[in-house]
Design brief:
heterodimer, A: alpha+beta, five-stranded mixed sheet, four-stranded mixed sheet, 2 helices, 17 strands, B: alpha+beta, eight-stranded mixed beta barrel
């Protein structure tokens, strides 16, 4: 069997292949941040006193059945982007929805969507962006004021005011509290109505939401619904110093070396290409 | 004469390419071999939150098995560091995995999370060194203190920078029964004492 090219050309081609392989090997080291399409997280609280038990539809499909006043769902995952949300009383079709609203949600974000309003004010969905990240060993608390006609409220733990002037509809800032049992007292700023206390046990690394729903003078009467979720920590430090005895900054010297290798690989590829072409040309001239 | 020069040049390029290959292999594979080393104390921030032992009628997970990458590791409970990050195992930082005990149990609805070190000081492999070699469909088994075993399978692998990681999705996805495994990836940043990326392996209960 006769070789179609000279051994020199063959070696040159092999070296080209080797250099390309080296380049590919190095490119594998540069891991890109592959942020897969993240979902959005949505929970819904039924806080509309004048809407009975209902079904909830998302983009025309039923998301929740028998959704009762004063309940809050877990977080459900939905694709990011705009979504048509409709709420219709049970027994009535989506065509008789009392609330139809388009909400837009972002990837990786958690939301609380509150079904609000009365017959006189009209019904709507209000969206609150949640932050369930937690600090070490503490507990976070947030109050959602979803009680129409109550005016602004203050929240205290008996000793001191924790939240003041929270209006309807609104959500407080997150309070970072020590773990333990609390009895929160909610008072209205515009009336002397006595509201029920809110007993809550705050566990470490949790986020507790307190929803004020209902009406002060009427039905359904005002009540406080609580929901507690696990707090979200930041990403762990699971790597180690590859050069622990180096002086500060010395271990970073790896990156320039990698780049040097890449440059040398490119030179190798370029050189091998040039030599291969020249040899092929001279070989052709010899044949002619 | 010209031909000899070409041969010399070719050999130079061949040597260069060979050097690069060996260098490349050295960079990417050097620490994949298990070498003797001195174990130094964990460099991670101290965990000030006391891990919670959950033994109220439910057995804690005690062992993690990932046959595809030969992981057979004890499980410690971990909490949150003073920086707000998920803590890492402290009893045996390099061989154990940590279970975020404030989250759900693996096997409960929600996202249970295990973390484990990628490497030890000096770059030597730790428990989750080969996590990046997992593929969708690979089995992950959790053994509980009562002897029960649950099996999960890999559904996705993703690399994130720590700041951009979808924390809610990793720790707070309640749409199913998940077990997510986290370790480091990317390059070491000495000034930040951490790597550039995190690898998250998403698994779901079979």
């Amino acid at each position: 069997m006769k070789l179609k090219c000279s051994p020199v050309v063959l070696v040159c081609r092999i070296s080209l292949a080797c250099a390309l392989f080296a380049l590919v090997t190095f490119s594998g080291l540069f891991q890109k941040s592959v942020a897969a399409q993240s979902l959005a997280f949505v929970r819904i609280v039924h806080a509309s006193p004048d809407v009975g038990t209902a079904n909830v539809f998302l983009d025309g499909s039923k998301l929740l059945s028998n959704f009762q006043f004063g309940t809050v769902t877990d977080y459900a995952t939905i694709p990011p982007g705009p979504h048509k949300v409709q709420i219709a009383l049970i027994g009535k079709g989506i065509g008789a929805a009392v609330i139809t609203q388009t909400l837009s949600v972002d990837p990786g974000i958690a939301y609380t969507v509150a079904a609000l309003g009365t017959k006189s004010t009209g019904f709507s969905l209000d969206v609150f962006t949640d932050n369930n990240q937690i600090s070490n060993g503490t507990a976070k608390v947030r109050v959602y004021h979803l009680s129409p006609g109550t005016g602004t409220v203050n929240v205290s733990n008996g000793n001191s005011t924790l939240i003041s002037g929270l209006g309807y509809p609104g959500a407080s800032n997150y309070l970072s509290l020590q773990t333990g049992s609390y009895s929160f007292q909610v008072t209205t700023t515009q009336s002397s109505a006595t509201l029920p206390t809110v007993p809550v046990t705050l566990k470490a690394n949790t986020v507790t939401s307190i929803f004020a729903v209902g009406v002060v003078n009427g039905t359904p009467q005002i009540e406080f619904v609580t929901a507690q979720v696990s707090g979200l920590p930041g990403m762990p430090l699971t790597g180690s110093d590859p050069n622990p005895n180096a002086a500060p900054g010395e271990s970073q010297a790896l990156s320039p070396w990698i780049w040097l290798f890449v440059v040398l690989a490119l030179i190798g590829i370029g050189g091998a290409v040039v030599v291969t072409r020249r040899l092929a040309l001279s070989h052709r001239q010899v044949i002619v | 004469m010209q031909n000899m020069r070409a041969v010399r040049l070719t050999l130079y390029f061949f040597a260069l390419a060979l050097t690069l290959i060996l260098g490349g292999c050295d960079q990417s594979l050097a620490s994949q071999t298990t070498l003797p080393h001195a174990i130094s104390p964990t460099p991670s921030p101290k965990s000030t939150s006391t891990p919670v032992l959950k033994l109220k009628g439910r057995a804690n997970p005690v062992r993690l098995l990932i046959p595809a990458i030969h992981v057979n590791a004890s499980i410690e409970t971990v909490g949150i560091t003073s920086n707000g990050d998920l803590a890492v195992p402290t009893q045996n930082p390099w061989e154990h995995v940590g279970w975020y005990a404030s989250g759900p149990y693996p096997g409960e609805r929600g996202s249970a999370v295990f973390d484990g070190h990628l490497d030890r000081p000096g770059g030597y492999p730790a428990v989750f060194w080969y996590l990046r070699d997992l593929h969708v469909g690979d089995e992950v088994r959790v053994i509980y203190a009562n002897g029960k075993t649950l099996q999960f399978h890999v559904t996705d692998l993703a690399f994130y920078s720590p700041q951009d990681a979808p924390i809610q999705e990793i720790f707070g996805n309640e749409a199913g029964t998940y077990l997510n495994l986290i370790t480091c990836a990317g390059d070491w940043i000495a000034s930040q004492h951490q790597t550039t990326l995190r690898l998250v392996v998403y698994t779901t209960l079979d």
